[in-house]
From TrEMBL:
Segments passing through the bilayer: 16-35, 42-61
Domain Histidine kinase: 321-515
Reaction(s) catalysed (UniProt annotation): ATP + protein L-histidine = ADP + protein N-phospho-L-histidine
Keywords of this entry: 4Fe-4S, Coiled coil, Cytoplasm, Iron, Iron-sulfur, Kinase, Membrane, Metal-binding, Transferase, Transmembrane, Transmembrane helix, Two-component regulatory system
Segments forming a coiled coil: 349-376
Annotated EC: 2.7.13.3
GO MF annotations in UniProt: kinase activity
Needed cofactors: [4Fe-4S] cluster
Function, in words: Member of the two-component regulatory system NreB/NreC involved in the control of dissimilatory nitrate/nitrite reduction in response to oxygen. NreB functions as a direct oxygen sensor histidine kinase which is autophosphorylated, in the absence of oxygen, probably at the conserved histidine residue, and transfers its phosphate group probably to a conserved aspartate residue of NreC. NreB/NreC activates the expression of the nitrate (narGHJI) and nitrite (nir) reductase operons, as well as the putative nitrate transporter gene narT.
Pfam families per UniProt: HATPase_c, HisKA_3
Name listed for the protein in its UniProt record: Oxygen sensor histidine kinase NreB
Cellular localisation: Cytoplasm
Length: 515
């Protein structure tokens, strides 16, 4: 440092210059002594210049040294202040660049040691990093942990200020991790639950835990514009549907406080579907993230409602299929058997052989229709996709159907697929219709069911049999859906549908759907 070097130079001059000046004065006066008279004036000059001059020089140099020393101290203080400011700045920078608490503690401890120039150890919420030195230790406010340092000149006030900065940075990392964990849990809940009420209960529980709210509720708009309480916890809300007015009407447009501690946020995904209500302290500072979570809940509600509408449509289509099959199949077969029985009754006295033949045809037709009725009853059994999951439901249904229909089934299923509930339902319906068509029309001995993931966001279902096959697949209209209806359902999800078949070479049904 330049000021420090100057200080050393002034001190050296302070030691050397006064005696040097005195020596010069003495030498000068003695050198002129032969040319002067020795009197009292000589000794006066020697005393004045030999003593006063060095003393004045010493005093001036002392003053310069003190000023230089103050400058050195000021520069050191400024350097230390800059180092401390840099350390505080690095604390927040390292925290912002960290993904989790463990990484943040490690990076902050390393950055403090590098910036301050002495050992620093840090511990927060059981996570430890840095170099233990047995030095001064201060607690981290708001967290379970401490900051330990071994500075050359211990200064507790600075370490306490630094501990506050470190605690604030680490608390932001913890809050960020909680936000990410909440989003992950919400996303998992959306994928795992199809029942709307249980879905809303799970989402509300997670949101309440994140917001540290003591109460909460979800109210949905019905077709007439009434707010209907669906899930309510520790809140004084009406238990019956009511028209939104006042603050409730405002809550459909943006976040509003119903009272001092009760916040209402709109469940809005393109259009408002309801209101999320939370009761607790400090909710105003959490509004941005709560609004985002409310939009996720709104998407879940819309998806669940669309799922229910799809189920209703599927039920109606299934009723239409059963009515058509009863009319075209079982009803005509019963009429045929009635005619054959009448014929057998008339022939019984005249031609017993012809009567027995008619009875045999009735018996075979009756057995075929019994098998068909059993297949229809099996197809109508509810498959609990929600309970078993998509892949397990496919496995159970395929094996049970193959056992009922009398053919072997070979399954090739992945460990997991990334599909929405609506896409899972579409693929499952395609599987049901493809197996039904194979049993009813193809008469195969073996059916292969293959499910292939399309990356992480989609799947391809292939149902392949070794049955009789057919030509002009689009015109056949086989099965309850009919091939055209299967294609429409798959393509409505943004997917692709294809049927390949040749007489004597079996049939292959391929359906691809994205996430």
């Amino acid at each position: 440092m330049a000021s420090h070097s100057l200080y050393r130079l002034v001190r050296l001059a302070q030691r050397l210059l006064p005696p040097l000046i005195a020596a010069v004065v003495v030498v000068f006066e003695l050198a002129l002594l032969p040319y002067r008279h020795v009197d009292g004036l000589l000794w006066l000059r020697l005393g004045f210049y030999g003593l006063v001059g060095p003393l004045v020089t010493y005093a001036v140099l002392e003053w310069i040294a003190q000023e230089t020393l103050e400058k050195v101290r000021a520069e050191r203080a400024l350097e230390e202040a800059n180092r401390r400011l840099l350390a505080a700045g690095r604390v927040f920078r390292e925290a912002l660049e960290s993904e989790n608490l463990e990484e943040a503690v490690s990076r902050i401890a390393r950055a403090l040691g590098e910036t301050l120039g002495y050992p620093v150890a840090l511990e927060a919420e059981g996570v430890h990093a840095g170099e233990e030195c047995g030095g001064m230790r201060v607690e981290l406010p708001g967290l379970k942990g401490y900051l330990e340092a071994c500075p050359p000149e211990p200064e507790r006030v600075f370490l306490e200020v630094l501990a506050h900065e470190v605690a604030g940075a680490l608390q932001s990392v913890v809050a960020r991790s909680r936000d990410r964990l909440t989003l992950f849990e919400v996303d998992q809940a959306l994928k795992a639950e199809a029942n709307l009420d249980r879905l809303l209960e799970g989402l509300l529980e997670r949101i309440q835990a994140w917001a540290e709210a003591e109460g909460g509720g979800v109210l949905l708009l019905d077709e007439e514009g009434f707010l209907v309480p669906r899930v309510v916890r520790n809140l004084a809300l009406p238990s019956h549907p009511f028209l939104p007015d006042g603050v409730w009407k405002g809550s459909l447009e943006g976040p509003v406080f119903v009272d001092e501690e009760t916040l209402a946020l709109p469940l809005k995904a393109r259009e408002t579907v309801g209101v999320l209500v939370l009761k607790g302290k400090g909710l105003s500072r959490r509004i941005p993230f709560l609004s985002f979570l409310a939009s996720q809940v709104a998407l879940a509600v819309r998806n669940a409602q669309a799922y229910l509408r799809a189920e209703e449509l599927a039920i109606n289509e299934e009723r239409t299929r059963i009515a058509r099959e009863i009319h075209d199949g079982i009803a005509q077969s019963l009429a045929f058997m009635a005619l054959k029985l009448d014929l057998a009754e008339r022939l019984l006295a005249k031609d017993q052989e012809a009567a027995l033949k008619a009875l045999t045809e009735v018996k075979e037709t009756l057995r075929a229709q019994i098998r068909e009725v059993r297949r229809s009853i099996f197809a109508l059994r509810p498959i609990d996709l929600e309970r078993y999951g998509f892949l397990e439901s496919v496995r159970r249904y395929a094996h049970a159907f193959a056992e009922q229909a009398g053919f072997r089934v070979q399954l090739a299923l992945p460990e997991r697929v990334g599909l929405s509930q609506a896409s899972e339902l579409v693929l499952f319906r395609v599987l049901q219709e493809a197996l039904t068509n194979a049993a009813k029309h193809g008469k195969p001995s073996r059916v292969e069911v293959e499910l292939l993931p399309l990356g992480e966001r989609g799947a391809r279902l292939v149902v392949r049999d070794n049955g009789k096959g057919f030509q002009n697949a689009e015109a056949q209209g086989l099965g309850g859906f009919g091939l055209t209806q299967m294609r429409e359902r798959v393509e409505a999800r943004g997917g692709h549908f294809q049927v390949r078949s040749e007489p004597g070479k079996g049939t292959e049904v391929v359906a691809e759907v994205p996430y």
